[in-house]
Amino acid sequence: MSDGIKVPPCRPYVLRAMYDWMVDNLLTPQIAVNVNFPEVDLPLQYAQNGLIILNISPRAVLNLKIDNRGISFNARFGGVPHSVYVPMIAVTSIYPREDPKLGMYLLPEAGYDDFYENSDAGTSKGHLSAVEEVENTGSKENVPSSAPESGEKKVEHKKPTLEIVE
């Protein structure tokens, strides 16, 4: 953010505006959710490849609440009632079922780190961390030890990488 101005992320505002526009135009709002974020509370057996599509139309859900922290509602999955909570950072897109081209992909926002870090909700910051780049030779002998050698003072940082573990 420029000039040190700290504002909350715009994602919840964009999402509420898109939702209202879809409902006003008799479209069926759906959201894509990354289920790998902490605090996602929904029936995970319906997720595929770490993603679930949720119909959040007024006919499909009860008690829908979209606030700056997340989306909550009650819905049925396979005929079984569930309470659902999706933190705002886990929503990746919103689009109408009738024409997904009218939707919007929600880009990651740097503001979420500061917003959640300074909140009183106790939301964790992400669950990803930097790891050292290691050449995969198939042998565990080349894996570096995390313990520093004696006399070692300088810690060399390498480019962070992401490893997906399923």
From TrEMBL:
Record's compositionally biased regions (Basic and acidic residues): 150-166
Disordered as annotated region, ranges: 132-166
Entry-linked Gene3D superfamilies: SspB-like
Biased composition regions of type Polar residues, renumbered to the chain: 136-148
GO biological process: positive regulation of protein catabolic process
GO cellular component: cytosol; ribosome
InterPro entries assigned: SspB (IPR007481), SspB-like_sf (IPR036760)
Database matches in PANTHER family: STRINGENT STARVATION PROTEIN B
Protein name: Stringent starvation protein B
Natural source organism: Ruminobacter amylophilus
Source lineage: Bacteria, Pseudomonadati, Pseudomonadota, Gammaproteobacteria, Aeromonadales
